[in-house]
Amino acid sequence: MVVPVQYYLALSVALFALGVIGVLIRRNALVIYMSIEMMLNAVNLAFIGFADYFKAVDGQMFVFFVLTVAAAEVAVGLALIVAIFRNRGDVYVDNLNILKW
Amino acid sequence: MQTLFFILGAVALVSGGLVVFQKHPLRSALWLIVNFFAVAGIYLLAHAEFIAAIQVIVYAGAIMVLFLFVIMLMNIRQPEDAPKIPFIGQKMAGIILAGFTGLILIYGVTKAALTTGKEMAPGLGNTESIARSLFTDYLLPFEVTSVLLLVAIVGAVVLAKSKLK
What we know:
The complex is a heterodimer of chains A (101) and B (165). By secondary structure, chain A is mainly alpha-helical. Chain A has a single domain (5-88), classed as Helix Hairpins (Orthogonal Bundle), CATH 1.10.287.3510. Chain A is built from 3 helices and no strands. In chain A, helix 1 (5-25) packs antiparallel against helix 2. Chain A is elongated. Chain B is an all-alpha fold and 165 residues long. In chain B, helix 1 runs antiparallel to helix 2 (25-45) and helix 2 (25-45) runs antiparallel to helix 3. Chain B is built from 6 helices and no strands. Chain B is globular and about 55 Å long. The chains are: A mainly alpha (101), B mainly alpha (165). Chains A and B meet through helix 1, helix 2 and helix 3 of A and helix 1, helix 2, helix 3, helix 4 and helix 5 of B.
């Protein structure tokens, strides 16, 4: 009994919306970052669902590249967050208003 | 197979919700690991064994270790000291906006015209077919990816080293 592609898409949409909620309502930069990771993961899930549906390997290739970009992004982003923390003492996005003059 | 999908999907959704709504970032990170494992299980159901293994190693392993390391390095303050939300109803507005995003996505998904899939039985294993594709059709993106990783390494080192006056 094979899982229909619509189920993958539904789960992907739900996870993506959860990630959007996290980005919009949380104040901590780290949690916002985790929500972004969750959204990337939701997109990967849609890719994998389509790859299974079309019996093609290209969807999995795209997931491979998304994973690589996500790893690079996390390394740079966390370095930025650590630099901000060293500079200002916290990571709440509401306090990062130094560009608002 | 479908019941397994439903179980894993429910685990992914519940743990995702806990990631968003937990007060302490450390707990969010731990629930995110659960979420990644559930999604890796769904990849296994979708015959993507290699991607499932990569998901566990890179996401649940490397990336989450980095996250937990940074959270503990910062010794983040208790959530009670968090700054007040700047205007009332921001939380509600965020949830409503995310709901709209979900509705737009659902609309796009239902409009997608899905024809029947090609009946192409793969003679090769999953990892082998990925490797063949990676080193023939996707050779240039693969090489560009290595440059991207190098840039990320250099950027992370520079950002973590300098005093950032």
